Amino acid sequence: MVFEAIIKENFTSYEAYLASRKVMASPFMVSEVKDNHPSSFYAETPLTSTHIFGEVNLSCEVSKTNNSDFSLRILSTIIPSRVLYRYDSDGPDHKNKVDYIPLPQQSVPTPHYHRFDSQGNLLAYQTDAMKDDTQASNWKDIEKAFDYFCQSGNIHTSLPDDKPRIVVSTGNLPLDFGDDPINGLNF
Amino acid sequence: METIFNIIKSDFDSLWKIKMRGTTMEVVTPIATTSDKFVSVFITKRGDSYVVTDGGWISEGKYDSDLPLLNDIYARVFDYYKSEYGINELAANNYIYYFKKTTDKAMVSSLVFDLATFTSSVISASFINYQEKKELDNSKRFQSRANAFIKEIVPRDIPVKHNAWALEKYKSLRFHALIPYKNRLTLVSYVTGSNNDYFRNSLAMANMRFEVVEKDGFNGIVAHKVLLIDDTVKSYTSPEMTPIIGIITNNAKRINLPWSERDRIKKAVGFE
Question: What is the ipTM of this complex?
Answer without folding.
Answer: 0.89
